[in-house]
Amino acid sequence: MKTQKTCSYASRSLVLAVSLIFLTAGNSARAASGSTTMDSEAATNEASVVDKISASFDTFAGSSDNAIALVVGLHDGSDISLSTTDPVTTITTDTTFTPATGAMGYGNVYIALGLAAASLEQAGIINPTATDIEAVLNGGIVTPDASDPATTVELSGVLVLRSDGMGWGQIAHQIGVKLGPVMSALNHDARTLKKANKPAHSHTK
């Protein structure tokens, strides 16, 4: 009886391990598909790719200008300057930082921003400030409840983990968010972009 239980546990463990392998492989394939499309489209129409990705994250970034700055800065590995205007005092604060990863492909830029947005949302921050965005990307401390400064959350930094050699699936697991929704959004936007950039067929007699 004990042998049967041991075999049963071993079988379930094997099934779980195999399932995880296929799940990881599936996520990697989906990431590669969307990322490849984004990068290939950028080769012929880079502006359209920047516009598409920034439009998907302008709410997260706080403005379209901030979103474009994030996309360009993450892709080039250059300094990123973001502005946040306090709705009460109307005072604008500028934040500048350098991505921890260096240059990245546009597909990876999309994934990094998607995971960053999910991480802040999980921390209770829906409308992040520029400093919140810097923290979630490069690591740092955020305050979900502005009325209670003592309540803080320390973030590892999506880009820091990436620069340490971690894959996107590993990063998602590390920060406690799901990679699937980010991949689905990437692939959807990549397909839409490719369709929009497809040249119209000319009919000649």
Entry keywords:
205 residues; mainly alpha; two-stranded antiparallel sheet; two-stranded antiparallel ribbon; 8 helices; globular
Low-confidence stretches: 5-11, 13-31
Task: Please give the number of β-strands.
Answer: 4
On the 0 to 100 scale, the average pLDDT is 85
Q: Report the sheet-strand fraction.
A: 5-15%
Label the structural class: mainly alpha
What is the string of SSEs from the N terminus onward?
HHHEEHHEEHHH
Layout of strands and helices, then pairs:
Blueprint: H1 2-56, H2 58-61, H3 64-76, E1 80-85, E2 92-97, H4 106-122, H5 130-138, E3 140-142, E4 153-155, H6 158-163, H7 168-175, H8 180-197
Antiparallel strand pairs: 1-2, 3-4
Helix pairs in contact: 1-3, 1-4, 1-8, 4-5, 4-7
Characterize the structure shown.
Helix 1 crosses helix 3, helix 1 packs across helix 8 and helix 4 (106-122) runs parallel beside helix 7. With 205 residues, the chain is mostly helical. A hairpin with a 6-residue loop joins strand 1 (80-85) and strand 2 (92-97). The protein has eight helices and four strands; from the N terminus they run αααββααββααα. Strands 1-2 form a two-stranded antiparallel ribbon. The chain has a two-stranded antiparallel sheet with strand order 3-4. The protein has helices at residues 2-56, 58-61, 64-76, 106-122, 130-138, 158-163, 168-175, 180-197; strands at residues 80-85, 92-97, 140-142, 153-155.
Quick rundown:
This protein has helices spanning 2-56, 58-61, 64-76, 106-122, 130-138, 158-163, 168-175, 180-197, and strands spanning 80-85, 92-97, 140-142, 153-155. It is mostly helical and 205 residues long.
